[in-house]
Amino acid sequence: MSDHLQGRGVSSALWNLLRDAAVLLLRMRAISLQTISIMSQTHLILAEARSWIGTPYRHQASLKGVGCDCLGLLRGVWRGVMGAEPELPPPYSPDWAEAGADTLVAAARKYLVEIACDEFTAGDVLLFRWRATMPAKHCAIAASPDSMIHAHDGASVAEVAFHPWWRRHLAFAFRFPDID
């Protein structure tokens, strides 16, 4: 067993059981190596996003346990899963999206993989518009088909139900790129 797993409290017996189960499933062709990789990355994304739950809302912040906004949550999850941020966002006001540019969508297209809104799964990034003619100005991380993790003004980061109101305002969905 590798040292990094032992350091995380994974016992040798559990590690051997998991390894043997994965080998058996691979032999049965029930899952592929790619599926195992995606499952692992999804688990990392959700674990990191959930570790931010309870972080208070702070505009432009991105510090777990201290404060973040919706973009700060996404940035923090990126750092926790992918490593260093590819770029830092410029300063922005709370009403930045009213300026007309779809800045959030442009950045997502630059660093994430766009998918159809009806194809999102756990660990994917969701972008919302308040009105059809407005730029997207809110983001969240899907926790399941029926829940999401997000930060919003006046509340702490939380995992909430993906109610019909959110579904109506969902404008874009993205997936994290594969971890190298």
Strand order in space, largest sheet = 3-8-4-5-6-7
- Put simply, the count of helices is 6
CATH superfamily of the largest domain: endopeptidase domain like (from Nostoc punctiforme)
CATH architecture of the largest domain: Alpha-Beta Complex
Percent range of helical residues: 25-40%
In the CATH scheme, the class of the largest domain would be: Alpha Beta
Helix/strand class: alpha+beta
What would the average pLDDT be, to the nearest integer?
Answer: 84
Total strands: the figure is 8
- What coarse outline follows from CA principal-axis ratios? globular
The major pleated sheet works out as: 6 strands, antiparallel
Integer count of domains: 2
CATH topology of the largest domain: endopeptidase fold (from Nostoc punctiforme)
Instruction: Tell me the β content.
Output: 15-25%
Order of helices and strands: HHHEEHHEEEEEHE
